Amino acid sequence: MPNYDKIDSYLEKNLDQSIAELSRLVAQPSVGAQNLGMKECASLVGNMLRARGFDVRIMETKGAPVVFGERKGKSGKTLLIYNHYDVQPPEPLELWDSPPFEPSLREGKLYGRGVSDDKGHIVSRLHAIDAILETEGELPCTIKFIIEGEEETASVNLFEFIKQNRDLLKADACMWEFGGVDHREVPMQYLGLRGICYVELSVETASTDVHSGLGGSIFPNAAWRLVWALNTLKGEDERIRIKGFYDGIRQPSARDRELMAALPEVAEEYKSRYGVRQFIKGLSGGVDLRIEEVFTPTCTICGLTSGYQGPGSKTVLPARASAKVDFRLVPDQDPDDIRRKLRSHLDEHGFSDVQITDLGGDPPARTDPDDPFIQLVAKVAEDVYEMPMQLVPLVGGSGPSHPFVHDLGLPVATAGLGYPDTKAHAPNENIRIDLYLKHARHMARVIKELAG
Amino acid sequence: MPNYDKIDSYLEKNLDQSIAELSRLVAQPSVGAQNLGMKECASLVGNMLRARGFDVRIMETKGAPVVFGERKGKSGKTLLIYNHYDVQPPEPLELWDSPPFEPSLREGKLYGRGVSDDKGHIVSRLHAIDAILETEGELPCTIKFIIEGEEETASVNLFEFIKQNRDLLKADACMWEFGGVDHREVPMQYLGLRGICYVELSVETASTDVHSGLGGSIFPNAAWRLVWALNTLKGEDERIRIKGFYDGIRQPSARDRELMAALPEVAEEYKSRYGVRQFIKGLSGGVDLRIEEVFTPTCTICGLTSGYQGPGSKTVLPARASAKVDFRLVPDQDPDDIRRKLRSHLDEHGFSDVQITDLGGDPPARTDPDDPFIQLVAKVAEDVYEMPMQLVPLVGGSGPSHPFVHDLGLPVATAGLGYPDTKAHAPNENIRIDLYLKHARHMARVIKELAG
Q: What's the whole-number mean pLDDT along residues A80-109?
């Protein structure tokens, strides 16, 4: 590897300036769910790219605009960097120790809404680019940024945007928006995301609730209809009963099992952190638990609501009942296919009265752990973190990586400044400044080594 | 029958004065659920009885006091009158056309919280007693009032009170706290109430909710546990699956069927009022629907709550889930027995983790339609309503009549000033002044005819 002393020295000397720039970005609210400051934030991000000599386009979608920026580099290689400028709502405000949109530096940490998810990633990557430009005068490879504004609201327009801009987004590799170290301070490389199909199931049996003394023996009850319908979806054996649900699932390979086996034990940590007495399916821990956690699809009831829910009793027969249900999907399941199968299942079991509302979905996607770009990103981390990244073939969460992997055909690597106490989506979201600097150093190496 | 001209004339001439007294009673809030004005109202009711020469005792219970009053009469007969001075909370206040505790007379109706349920019944009965005392100087039979303060909060201390005061409450017959005419203006005699066993079923599977991407494949889910547990209680065939649930149920007799057959059709009215497209169990209407409505026990889910219930999606695996469930019981089912059987059922089906919280219960109770007192009350109504009362062997609702029927051994008759639009428990609760007067006239006849 080339010598990174000058770059590292620049990154360290100009760290305060970069944190100041990040603070300005965090101070600009950009809450997608509340449509707060979105255009202003897109414009600010665009200007930050322009300041580094990027050609910038603020591209309209049906929702928040996408900020696209490109700066050519010396080699023929292109790195596509995916980030987002939108943030989660800051509520509940009373639980913040400092105001969410007034970034506050305390004991080596910067606090503020979006400081970790995802504005810190944007600015630390720009910091890496500044260091390269300052020391070398040009980029070693072409860099394209795609910075969307709807990641926190299910990236509903991103798939269409990518389909319509395949040429613009052409690249050799993609760097994902998140990443970080785990509780052992080991940098982790997450190589796949499960898909998701989120639906609301709802039933209406009458125009109004009825006194239970009157209707209990003769009226249909929406809560019972919902319970019976849900019960047909999954049994106590945890087997999902929708016909064809498990079709096309790829079992974990020997390589996947090897990587999963190398990960640390989670059983005791999960039990103590979440107060769970035992796992389902007879699992107790070890690699079996970790593989089951991510390589199997789920049918999770996320919420139930019907009738009277206050203290004490109210004798009412509910006219309406609904459930929020998410299915986590593994390769090669597809959310549209699962939604169709769910409809058929309900109809076949006599539940045509149960309505399905589509609340969003992502297909699952994985990148080969032995892809050269992944190996590169993992290896160059050693120079920064004193160890290579640990490869995780699949994680349980979901995200919009499918079009990057399958439409653009890119290997997608994760790396970032996250750590277990970063509190993304929660009050007191924060980053550690040391990890911010490490991520910039890592990114400088990824950019240079990709160019070859 | 003797001549009632003098009594009727008194009742009519002094009607305004009686309504003024009722208004003073309604103006005294007595909201049991909010512990508002209970002692003041008990004292006011006691004074109203004393003003008629009753010996009054304000008797303490573990909750609101019971007002007991007795005045001896000429004959050896005793009528026990059961009423309550507590009222439902007045909320939502914004839906009242006049303030709930400022009684308002408009177009022949008096509006206010408790005017129908149950203060109007108390004062119209006192009005009848005034008329008899004024015209005859004494009561023809002994009258005992038991006026409790916890009827709207499940009469939790009444059973014990009755057990401990059997001698004090000794009587020949009991007049219940409610009654009235139906939509045809026919006075109805409700001869039985179903019992009730109200429970909350709750499950906790973790100390905190978990991200569904993390826990979906390996953590127990409280909402699923609840759905599966509920599903074992009742199938889509509406048959309740708790072992022994149907033990000891008395089928409706030929006399019950005859009385039920004489009642008006309800199917179309129910469908249009409640927006129900069809009834369960293949019922379409007629006497079969009416018999099923009241002579079968129920297992009704009154409410469901778990996890995320807001708009859109939240990917959460809930740690807690609960359901409110009421069982309506028919003679001779018993709520304590049903609760025990429910616990056994859950344990036997692997749901020992589902907690049962007892939210109250009443056993069912019925009075023989051919009891001489019932026949008397029904017959003397003809002189007031121009038709005898129609006998209804059992209704779907519940109430604390069991200890009156089974501990005190009394026939319990219903009669009152209610009508379909009386809005008990709702904003704009009201009574019709014409029905108030009719009930007083009817009560005067019951008191005199019981004395013989």
A: 95
* A393 and A358 in a common domain: no
Instruction: Kindly state whether B137 is in contact with chain A, defined as any CB-CB distance less than 8 angstroms.
Output: no
Q: Give yes or no: residues A33 and A172 share one domain.
A: yes
Render A351-418 in DSSP notation, one character per residue.
-TTSEEEEEEEE--EE--TT-HHHHHHHHHTHHHHSSPPEEES-BS---TTHIIIIIS---EE---SB
Q: For the residues of B238-253, what is the DSSP string, one character each?
A: --B-STTTTTTPPPP-
End position of a domain, from candidates B330, B362, B394: B362
Interface test with A, best of B224, B226, B269 (most A CBs within 10 A): B224
A226:B305 CB<8 A: no
For the CA atoms of A347, A351, A354, A359, the dihedral, rounded to the nearest 10 degrees, stands at -50
- State yes or no: pLDDT of A153 exceeds 90: no
Residue B226: per-residue pLDDT: 98
pLDDT at B452: 85
Query: Final residue of a domain: which of A362, A378, A410?
Result: A362
Can you give the residue range of the structural domain that contains B314?
Answer: 206-249+297-362
Model's pTM, two decimal places?
A: 0.91
Which pLDDT score is estimated for B91?
85
Greater confidence (B311 vs B22) lies with B22
Q: What is the pLDDT of residue A452?
A: 85
Binary contact (B309, A304; C-beta < 8 A): yes
Token pair listed for A274 = 């979440």
Q: Are residues A175 and A110 in the same domain?
A: yes
> Is the predicted pLDDT of residue B1 greater than 80, yes or no?
no
* Per-residue pLDDT at A38 exceeds 80: yes
pLDDT band at B235 (very low <50, low <70, confident <90, very high): very high
Q: Are residues B370 and B358 in the same domain?
A: no
A353 lies in the same domain as A372: no
- Predicted local confidence at residue B430, as pLDDT: 97
Q: How far is CA B289 from the centre of its chain?
A: 22
Chain A interface includes B246 (CB < 8 A): no
Does the pLDDT at position A154 exceed 90? no
- Indicate if A349 and A443 belong to the same structural domain: no
Residues 327-386 of chain A with CB under 8 A from chain B are: 328, 350, 359-360
The answer to whether the complex's ipTM is over 0.90 is yes
Q: Which of A358, A436, A443 is nearest to A18 (CA)?
A: A436
DSSP SS3 for A198 = strand
Mapped onto helix, strand or coil, the DSSP state of residue B386 is: coil
Q: Please check whether residue A293 touches B, CB under 8 A.
A: yes
Q: B285 CB near a chain A CB, below 8 Å?
A: no
Same structural domain, A68 and A167: yes
Q: Which of A134-138, A161-165, A210-214, B120-124 has the lowest mean pLDDT?
A: A210-214
Among A202, A237, A269, A304, the residue to mutate for chain B (most B Cβ within 10 A): A304
**CATH number of the domain enclosing B328:** 3.30.70.360
Residues B326 and B370 in one domain: no
Count CB atoms within 10 A of the CB of residue A232: 18
Domains: count for chain A: 2
